[in-house]
Amino acid sequence: MKSEKRKIVQAMAGGVLLYAIIQTMHSALARNINKEVLLTLLQIGSWCTVAFAFAVFVQGRLLVSRRMTRERTGLSALFFGLFLLDFAYTLSLSGSPNRSVISADAGSWLLPVSRLTATGGLFLLYSRRKAGAVHKEAVPAFVRASAGAAAAIALCLLLAVQEVAWGNGVKLGLHTLALLAAAPAILAILRSDSMEPGSLGAMLPRSLFLLGSGQLFLLRSTGEQDPNLLVGLLLGMAGYAAILVGVFRKLDEEEPKREREEIEAQLNYLVYHDELTGLANRRKLLQRLSYMIGLHQKNEIEGFSALAILNINHFKNINDSLGHQMGDRLLQLVAERLGTSLVLGEELFSMGGDEFALLMMDCPNLNECTDRAQELRRLFDKPLELDAGEYHISLSVGLAIYPGDGETAEQLVQSADTAVHHAKEQGKECTRFTPSMQMKASEKLKMENDLRRALERNEFYLLYQPQVRLETQEIVGMEALLRWNHPKRGLVSPVEFIPVAEESGLIVPIGEWVLQTACLQNKEWQKAGYKPICVSVNLSMRQFLQPNLAGKIGRYLEEIELDPKFVDLEITESMTLDREMAFDQLQRLKALGVGISIDDFGTGYSSLHYLKNMPIDRLKIDRSFVSEVMEDSNNAAIVSTITSMAHHLKLKVTAEGVENEEQMNFLNEQQCHEAQGYLFSRPIPAEEFEASFLQRNLMPLPL
């Protein structure tokens, strides 16, 4: 903002200096300038002014078609009127083929009328530019502008014919009013704190200043042979050009930015709220739990905090007997009754389906947490009123207490969920979690030691899951997935050993083994003559933080002679929280020529404004959204929004977890590019992948 004000002040100083120089040299210029050249320049400047006015009108109409406001409607209508006035004035200049229709005397009236219309109209627009949308005003505005311009032209022609004695004085007054109309707006913008560089709002005072400066010269002009007229016209033309630049910026920058912000707001709402009840959802709960844990760690909460998960008993029977529509209404009524009973320090969330969660912060003692959970359960001693009649329901409650029942948000949710299922199984009303299912510290240490030996003993192996282009149903890539065959325990789930590997730092050498093995396998398949496809490999946070990551990957790809375009690296949204580091790392990786994908997109938080500047190629929609896309309208809306946003940002989209044709057809309708999931194939060993997919597209080896 300060830079914009500084530019205006500098321009004002330059305008005063220009005025002083021209007036000082006026006599010499008037004597020595070639009159024909002067008239030619006058014609060119005037026609350019007409062209700029018409361009602003046309671009303003484009803005109007996108988002109707008084400012945009008025701007376009104003410049349509100015186009008519300036066009008529240009026809009055010497050398014009239509000068017999519009005389020079008429032109001497048209010019001050046009300038007064421009400065006065822009001043009014600036003072009202925050007005709201008013779609219905578009047509009347253009009718008024056309009628006003036509009336002004007719009046000028009449005054030129009448040759009234007071005409010169009125013309001088009109020029003076045009100058005075520009001054208040310039002073107002210098005091304003809402001006953004390059915006239409910033261009308005520039235009007013240029038009006002032009009026200084027009006030001194004695006719077409006077250089003051040429300078005044050129400054007016520059004022129109400033408006045109602002309008173009509005189209190219501000409007797309607004659209991105609207998509971002919509996506954030869908990601963090349940569509049916309007309550915050599980993802939002995890955020709030993390915040609560932080408060405890800073000793800002002295008591206990509790997470209660409330489950509606026998909801499936209610849903089956009353129908899904009535079941949805019952969930809404439960949410309303719980929501209206909250007290200070409590937050309510929807966990999806028939479960709700209540976060209670800073309870003085454990008994109060339990008593409060029982109070909420007793809210439903009274029946719920549905269209089909009154219905009695009951709730089971599971409690997890912090500190004690979990160290992280996920652990607290898992503990409370375990407790509520135990309550339902045992027929109890309210149960607190017990840590019997947690992995013991000794078991965790043993797994870490086993992981250290797993690489040496070749206990890890990779499975490959195909990625399919939905439009053509052809295999275009594969994701390499890590598995561990423990010599004693057998197959160990990645859900169990990956967190231990990440915590211990072993994920770095394991991740390097995965990347090298997957790339080498891809190269071997290419050597065998199979159609080249891309292999996707997940990067861990610890891998991504390595300063020399790009160098290590580049050297290995060069060593095995694999083209980087056949490698796609997958990162998660959480890896980009340190924006500067993430951007630099991704830039180095992109310089290699590899692809970059954001995995599990939608489960974290990414600013769209930031995301559009990241050097990435693809968004992968998390399977949690895709798996219930046909049953949950909220998930369907999220998938649709992510896909639309990706197209807007010119990114590819891959959907994970596609299990049936209905999901695939829905994704096709949303123009999702690629998909992977059990519908196409489960993750399979390299030999089976080669036989099932690659051998179908065998290519002859080059001679």
UniProtKB/TrEMBL annotation:
Pfam families given in the database record: EAL, GGDEF
Occurrences of domain EAL (ranges): 444-697
Name the record gives this protein: Bifunctional diguanylate cyclase/phosphodiesterase
Gene3D superfamilies: 3.30.70.270, EAL domain
NCBIfam families: GGDEF
InterPro entries for this protein: Biofilm_reg_signaling (IPR052155), EAL_dom (IPR001633), EAL_sf (IPR035919), GGDEF_dom (IPR000160), Nucleotide_cyclase (IPR029787), Rev_trsase/Diguanyl_cyclase (IPR043128)
Limits of the GGDEF domain: 303-436
Organism of provenance: Paenibacillus spiritus
Positions of transmembrane segments: 40-63, 75-94, 106-126, 138-160, 172-190, 229-248
Keywords in alphabetical order: Membrane, Transmembrane, Transmembrane helix
SUPFAM superfamilies: EAL domain-like (SSF141868), Nucleotide cyclase (SSF55073)
